[in-house]
Amino acid sequence: MVRVDDSDDVTKCWLSPGELDRLERAAGEDGWEREVAIQLMGRCGLRASEVSYPSDSNLRYSDDGDIWLFEVQGKNTKGGSKKTRDAWMPDDVADDIHKYSRERGLDLSDRWVDASTPSVRRWVNEATHTVAEQTDNPRWRSVSSHDLRRSWATYHLVERQVDVRTMMSIGGWSDYSAIEPYLAEPTEARIGEAMRP
């Protein structure tokens, strides 16, 4: 079930990997481009404003790291002009992107998602409302596009215990104070695993 913290002015939500899968499928019912947008936020940690930047020309395989990386131009958390970084992409998302690009006949420079930031946010809202209706779970209505990035960061920082410096690099945070809010409480499963004798 979607974890919700509404104790502050802004409601924060966290999705499990399974819940993210469900959201991706719901978005995909309205088009593959929407599903790709959800994957870029929930699986790769992009901000809604960064989703429309990458194209096939930005994606590369790193033999050194044995991983997929792609260039993103996004927010500079220290202020000022946009900052370019290499974001990480899971293998299954890279497979989807390659299939998507081939099916759509995209050129190397054609963006994967050709939509404005407000449109991307609206797509997330529409998909979460679809899942809320399908599951009869009103918590889904509180999920925002930023919650996808929050879920991605928390999952890797808290559940997978990826080191903070790596997450800062691939997520585009310039200093610890910018990433610290993502160090939320662990899930019940993580607590159980950590405390099991």
UniProtKB/TrEMBL annotation:
Gene3D superfamilies xref list: Intergrase catalytic core
This protein's record includes keyword Nuclease: no
Domain Tyr recombinase: 10-196
Molecular-function GO terms, alphabetical: DNA binding
UniProt keyword annotations, A-Z: DNA recombination
InterPro entries: DNA_brk_join_enz, Integrase-like_cat_sf, Integrase_catalytic
A GO biological-process term: DNA integration
Spans through the membrane: none
Keyword Phosphoprotein: no
Protein name according to UniProt: Bacterio-opsin activator-like protein
Organism name: Natrialba taiwanensis DSM 12281
